[in-house]
Amino acid sequence: MANWIDACAAEDIDEEDVIRFDYDGRTFAIYRSPDNVYFCTDGLCTHEQIHLADGLVMDHTIECPKHNGQFDYRTGKAMRAPVCVNLGTYATKVEGDRVLIEI
C-alpha cells in the first residue's frame, strides 16, 4: 500500500534546484528538473553522508558539496567518483500545489 507524504509546496523548489526534506528520522532530497518534473532521492551522499541539498544541481545531476561526486537524481545512479553506491529513489506526484513523495 502506498504511503504518500506531503513534502513541500511545488513553488518551494526552483527549476533545476533541490531542497531537503526530513521525515520520520530520514533525510530526503527533492528536485525540480528543467522540464518541471519533480524527483526524490535519499538526502545523504552514499560516500560520506553529506546533505545533498547543499550540492549543485545541473542537467539532471546532483553534485555532492564535499567531494564533487555526482548522481543522476532521476535514477539515483552514481555518475562520478568518489561515489560508487547508488542513491535510493522515491516516486513523486503533484496534487494541487503540493509535492508528495511515496515512502
From TrEMBL:
Molecular function GO labels: 2 iron, 2 sulfur cluster binding; metal ion binding
Protein name per Swiss-Prot or TrEMBL: Putative Rieske-like ferredoxin MocE
Could you say which cofactors this protein requires?
[2Fe-2S] cluster
User: Which family would the database say this protein is a member of?
Assistant: Belongs to the bacterial ring-hydroxylating dioxygenase ferredoxin component family.
- Pfam families (UniProt xref): Rieske (PF00355)
Q: Which residues form the Rieske domain?
A: 5-101
User: What InterPro entries does the record tag this protein with?
Assistant: MocE_2FeS (IPR012747), Rieske_2Fe-2S (IPR017941), Rieske_2Fe-2S_sf (IPR036922)
Which keywords are on file for this protein?
Answer: 2Fe-2S, Iron, Iron-sulfur, Metal-binding
| Family matches, as NCBIfam families | MocE_fam_FeS
